[in-house]
Amino acid sequence: MSAAAKPRTLFEKIWDAHVVHAQEGRQTILYIDLQLVHEVTSAQAFEGLRLAGRKVRRPERTIATADHNVPTTDRSLPIADPISKQQIDTLRNNCQEFGITHYDMGDVRQGIVHVIGPELGYTQPGMTIVCGDSHTSTHGAFGALAFGIGTSEVEHVLATQTLLQYKPKTLELRTDGKLGRGVTAKDLVLYLIGQITTDGGTGYCLEFTGEALKGLTMENRMTICNMSIEAGARAGMIAPDQTTFDYLKGRPFAPAGAAWDKAVAYWKTLPTDPGAKYDKSLVFQAADIAPQVTWGTNPGQVAAITAKIPRPGDFSDPTDQKTTAQSLEYMGLAGGEPITDLKLDRVFIGSCTNARIEDLRAAAEVAKGKKVSGHVQAMVVPGSGQVKVQAESEGLDKIFKEAGFDWREAGCSMCLAMNPDKLAPGERCASTSNRNFEGRQGKGGRTHLVSPAMAAAAAVAGHFVDVRDWE
Amino acid sequence: MKPFTTLTGTTVALDRANIDTDQIIPKQFLKRIERTGFGEFLFWDWMRHDDGTVNEEFELNKPYAKGASILLARRNFGSGSSREHAPWALEDFGFRVVVAPSYADIFYNNCFKNGMLPIHLSEEQVEELFQREAKHRPYQLTADLNTCTLSDGHGFSAKFEVEPFRRHCLLNGLDDIGLTLEHESKITAYETAHGIGV
Ligand code: SF4
């Protein structure tokens, strides 16, 4: 067997294909196929280029959109916050100056950067993709190597179209068996994070494998890869297959004609070879997974909907005990209460984790013909302008509005509360986003991460409920 | 980039694990388009009470923490968002060194781009430092990147590891982009071989 025929993982194949220069004892210079840019982490990078008199090496390989700061209410009004406006204007000006495609507010293709990349067909198998945003791992759902970077690295990619990288190790997370009824991709990934903890993936690139992944749609796969970073892994990936190709076919920036056939032929060579070795493999059983709800202030503090909130004494490690006590205090919980007893003030359905069309369909199915509980304020924020249009064409907006949900414009919104959508101190929220950190959705706000169906059911019931019992 | 060689400074200990970048610098301060001036927003929600008054209980506000340049914390420091505003804020506040058992990857990487040294020690060594800090306030440590040692001059001395090339760049304050562009012909060759930009 020749050296080239040595079995390799999906990660290794993509890595090897992008090495520009491997340097002994140094970081590898890795070619970057696609960079995505948003307003919050790019201004200083463009400024750096200007100060050094550098140009963007491959402007056609970077695309930009404004998502973090954009208001999700009426877009015909000027942006109320002058500093948000300045940041959004700065992005527009930088893109103009450096010749970068920009999907601005008012363009139906605008949206959360991790929603629009795939939706427009920019994201493709086998690519290296970066963005100054930790949830860039989302794009790994296509069998791409995609990870978040800092602003200095954004500047590095703009200037050189490469990145300096130490090669991560590989960690396979295999889930055997099929997910049960009412158990979604979100529950799967929350469960995995709970099992390996928030730093279990540090230093690794994850590959999600196993029967539970097989039948999943691209939207579901994106939800899973999106949250790789919450397990500490910069990248997570799923091997491309027919589902991937079907999703991409015909999208505006996907290859077409003869180039399409050639691309698919290449993409089919990407999945991990039989006999290839990961640095580490862990196996889980889909049958063990129930709908999940986080109870603490990091995504690894998670439990099944049927469980009770843990107490510090349930943990043996002193740091875990202390962390649990701190989290419970912040969350206004004593420990020991059944999760289904938690009463909610707010519900947020949105974010790059769960604001794609299927997520909205899943939430609408639960909300259909029901009413949001009197003490709950609930909102739905589509992930992109196109998701919004699609949802409206399917009548999902009507279902939500009739049930009493707010129906908003596309953006990050209350995922991080940089725009006016935020929790008041002490408010308890069921959220389909990815981070339950202290203050993430507003100072003093208490976030519980759940799937879209669980969020919709909680909005109606006014407290958490097991969607498996929903009729 | 500012080089880092050796630093002796006051250490302040934050007895928390998983300190995420949302805590280090909350999102409302990410709207600025400059790289500087983030120090005054560091740990914003922990530094002050809801009514805006100073939270005297928070470690960074204690008299002994004045002028601190070394931060001691528990595992998984810097998790969450990729915002480079986190090391910018720490650095602007006066910190050049963080000591913890582990870091989130992106934060760790971002530190080196900003002349900061994140030091890994074992959980036991970090525990020892927490105890020493509690006993000898203000507690002085010396981080020496030439010898890769962290010591307090009173019997504590530990070797730490940094990838040799990262160490080299930090010691000399080297700019990554400049280094990569030394290999520009290789980038061009890669692009030609892959039909990029032709
Ligand atoms: S939706 Fe939330 S996690 Fe996703 S990019 Fe926006 S702020 Fe970040």
From TrEMBL, chain A:
EC number: 4.2.1.33
Family of this protein: Belongs to the aconitase/IPM isomerase family. LeuC type 1 subfamily.
GO molecular function, one term: 3-isopropylmalate dehydratase activity
Encoding gene, per UniProt annotation: leuC
Cofactor: [4Fe-4S] cluster
Subunit field text: Heterodimer of LeuC and LeuD.
Protein name, entry field: 3-isopropylmalate dehydratase large subunit
Co-factor binding details: Binds 1 [4Fe-4S] cluster per subunit.
CDD domains xref list: IPMI
Positions contributing to [4Fe-4S] cluster binding: 352, 412, 415
Pathway(s) where this gene product acts: Amino-acid biosynthesis; L-leucine biosynthesis; L-leucine from 3-methyl-2-oxobutanoate: step 2/4
Gene3D superfamilies: Aconitase, domain 3 (3.30.499.10)
Organism: Lacipirellula limnantheis
GO biological process: L-leucine biosynthetic process
Function comment: Catalyzes the isomerization between 2-isopropylmalate and 3-isopropylmalate, via the formation of 2-isopropylmaleate.
UniProt domain Aconitase/3-isopropylmalate dehydratase large subunit alpha/beta/alpha: residue ranges: 12-462
PANTHER family the UniProt entry points to: 3-ISOPROPYLMALATE DEHYDRATASE, HOMOACONITASE, MITOCHONDRIAL-RELATED
Catalytic activity as recorded in UniProt: (2R,3S)-3-isopropylmalate = (2S)-2-isopropylmalate
Keywords attached to this entry: 4Fe-4S, Amino-acid biosynthesis, Branched-chain amino acid biosynthesis, Iron, Iron-sulfur, Leucine biosynthesis, Lyase, Metal-binding
Keyword Amino-acid biosynthesis attributed: yes
Automatic annotation (TrEMBL), chain B:
Pathway recorded for this protein: Amino-acid biosynthesis; L-leucine biosynthesis; L-leucine from 3-methyl-2-oxobutanoate: step 2/4
InterPro entries assigned: 3-IsopropMal_deHydase_ssu, Aconitase/3IPM_dehydase_swvl, AconitaseA/IPMdHydase_ssu_swvl, IPMI_Swivel, LeuD
Gene Ontology biological process terms in this record: L-leucine biosynthetic process
Entry superkingdom: Bacteria
GO cellular component entries: 3-isopropylmalate dehydratase complex
Record EC number: 4.2.1.33
Keywords: Amino-acid biosynthesis, Branched-chain amino acid biosynthesis, Leucine biosynthesis, Lyase
Domain Aconitase A/isopropylmalate dehydratase small subunit swivel: 1-123
Gene Ontology molecular function: 3-isopropylmalate dehydratase activity
CDD domains in UniProt: IPMI_Swivel (cd01577)
Reactions catalysed: (2R,3S)-3-isopropylmalate = (2S)-2-isopropylmalate
PANTHER family assigned to the protein according to its UniProt record, in alphabetical order: 3-ISOPROPYLMALATE DEHYDRATASE SMALL SUBUNIT, 3-ISOPROPYLMALATE DEHYDRATASE SMALL SUBUNIT 2-RELATED-RELATED
Sequence similarity: Belongs to the LeuD family. LeuD type 1 subfamily.
Functional description taken from the UniProt entry: Catalyzes the isomerization between 2-isopropylmalate and 3-isopropylmalate, via the formation of 2-isopropylmaleate.
Assembly behavior: Heterodimer of LeuC and LeuD.
Protein name: 3-isopropylmalate dehydratase small subunit
Protein species of origin: Lacipirellula limnantheis
